[in-house]
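question for whoever is on the cluster today: can someone run the full assembly for these? two chains, 926 residues total. i dont have access anymore since they changed the login thing
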Amino acid sequence: MPPVNPELVEAFSAKAALVNTVMQELPTMAAALQYVVDVCEKKAPAELLADEPSAEKGPLGPNKVPTRVKRIVAAPGLSDEDFATLSAACEAKGFACLREGLRNHLAGIDVGFSCAEAGVAASGTCLMNTNDEDVRLAGMISETHIILLRKSTIYPDLPSIAQLLRERINAEPTTYTTLITGPSRTADIERVAAVGVHGPLELHIILLED
Amino acid sequence: MHEAPKNLSDYRKQIDEALQDDFLRRTLDTFAVAYRANREAVFKEVDEKKLIAKIADAKDDACKHMEELFQKYKAEAEKRGVIVHRAVDADEANQIILRIARENNVKRVVKSKSMTAEEIQLNPVLEADGIIVDETDLGEWIIQLRHEGPSHMVMPAIHLSRYQVADDFTKATGEKQDTDVQKLVKVARVQLRRKFIAADMGISGCNFAIAESGLVTTVTNEGNARMVTTLPRVHVAIAGLDKLVPSIEDALTALQVLPRNATAQRLTSYVSWIAGAGACASSPSGKKIMHVIFLDNGRTEIAKDPLFSQIFRCVRCGACANVCPVFRLVGGHKMGYIYIGAIGLILTYFFHGKDKAAVLCQNCVGCEACANVCAGGIDLPRLIREIRARVAEEQGDGYAALLGSVMKNRKMFHSLLKFAKYAQKPFTGGTQFQRHLPNIFLGKHGFKALPALASKSFRDRWAEIEPKVSNPTMRVAIFSGCAQDFIYPEQLEACVKILAARNVAVEFPMDQTCCGLPLEMMGQRKTAIDVAKQNVQAFPVGRYDAIITLCASCASHLKHTMIKILDGEPAILPQAKLFADKITDFSSFMHDKLGLKKEDFFPSSEKVTYHASCHLCRALDVKEAPRALIASAAEYVPCEEEEVCCGFGGSYSAKFPEISARMLENKLNHIRATGATRLVMDCPGCVMQLRGGAEKQGLDIKVQHLSELLADNLKP
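^ ran it for u. tokens below:
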């Protein structure tokens, strides 16, 4: 592991915050998993943007569509051990915790949790391996997307991740790699900034001590 | 998509409509001002000029190797299970996509934004086959509901208000929708999620087609491209051949400029790098069915053009529209056919034909604001002038050609001007303005008082005023330009007075003529070359330390453009280069060469404001010298939007008087707000526009050339 560069960490946090990212520094994976559960508990229940016959439907949400009764946390990229921990914590709160099959819940889920491969300080960007469809969907159909980023993996700017990106792209016969900078946003109506047009309404980044 | 104007009067009618759209006016005004400030802020963190040069080099190189890159891309993408097509024109591209849709039994298509899909006008082709096509970029969806084309390459619905959008969404959903923007965005979230889920095929654009790994790279904020490329079982990406770049590094370089230029963001929310047809649970085979279609549509031919191949440096950021004072007034629907802004005027000519571009390409005031921000450093104003020259040559422009034949002959041109001086007498009442010109002649030009020709031109006064300087420290020549020679000789006299007082010998070669810029603006290339040769021959350059011109437009033309248009004239080119090297604008000479400082002037508390002429602050990049000189000679009061065009643009103000008048009005409002009693600038064209406007509006301010202020206050 390369040593943590505090200046890069600080720059990353500042730039990410500028694009509506909620920043959180945590010491351990256990704390990060607990944070995911806490965020899910505090948020309003996810709206069902489309019909999902098997879902139990609660009262209408702010956009006049039904809400989920049983909340969903999706964490498809986690190791078996971490997933087991998260799953147990979710179960205790009555949330579903999913690792796959997100296509069955395209109407929208509460929280998606994924791990970044690297960060870019100049823009507060996360480099994500999203080859797996479920990993990709966790960051697309969740209302709150939480990304875990290790402080030691923060690079200064886009040119400095070129080689890493190349290795990532060529790691498998087919790949799908994503750079994420803040939540889904638009300014297409009267140039008024709005978040959550298609993807997450909120993006949280947990900076993890190595 | 919208109708391209057929002729100038048809076009001016369209422009009138746009000018009366108060919402559009307000929106684009606010945007123009905010964009400039926001862009400047995000560029502070990177080396803008270096990045732009790097993009230009990389894209130029990619353009030279377009064929090799295509082959490399095809091989790499095919290795990864992608089917790569190449379409010679729009029709073939549409047919390929239609065939893919039929082969895969596609009923519903979702699209993320693609200007290339707009270029080929894909949607009607699919819809005619019974396929339902939904745009998923919010702005694109709005204009699709309205059956309109985009009015901006990045913000396609910037011309619409929340009220119009609410009405459209009410119709689309059958439910009354609130006009709150946040709520409207969520309506799209709900409606479009259902469309993503139901779609069989996703069609995306491609910001960078990276050959090394056969990559499709998409750049979005909303995340719709990720949905489009993930959920449906079929993915079709459309890219112009100009989107091919060799490496990931090329894309990363461009990504440092594209979002900054487009929306003043450091990076967009999502950049996706798709390498191959990956796993896809909605596909029967478990693998995505992925096609990439490269569109030629004339690109391989343009790539061979030594001048126009630079248009492929364009990354579709839209910055050329964002800073364009004409776009700001008329909006994108009146400033392009499908592609918008300065690059749109050029691309329309190449992709949609000269009949669509002939009128549109006239609508550039030549202020150079676009060239100053272009992500690929494309010389947009020059390319627009080149297209005018081609259009004029192909179609002929009777008036411009007549003028051209007069201008070719200096003596005839100058005699005509002298004749005009007598002819105007009944209309001037002896003032500096043409006061009594019947309205029928003024037409829509009534927004400013037109200047009268001087009773005696500078060239006719020269024998009387030529100063005798003994032991000169320097020797210079004056290039007068037509406006100062025949309309404002007093500006040149002020300069001569300063030069003589500072012991500089000055000459005025009599054989000089029009610099040629007005001819270029009208597309009269041949005559522009003729006058360029005459001017080069008129000046024995070896004699002079500098050739001073008080007209920033003449200066930028003589210094930068003239040698480009003389490229095919080897006999005179070396001499022309020496001539161009000696050309010095008034401000730079007085500030840098003569070193005029506060001590050289009588103290003055007069409040003087400044208009930064386009050709001085951008084409010549002279920004500090004139401001420092004003601050030395008086009290300098900065003006809002000081570097925005006054709307003159030479023959532009005659061709598009309505637009010119609005630009002038904006300028005068800012000038009025400074409370200054004198306004100076370094260009007689701007003096003509602003003095005429100030006179018409009864603004109590002296409008002069900077030389007059300096001469007034200079210590002997």
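summary bc i know u wont read the tokens: Chain B has 38 helices and 18 strands. Chain B touches chain A through 72 residues (CB under 8 Å).
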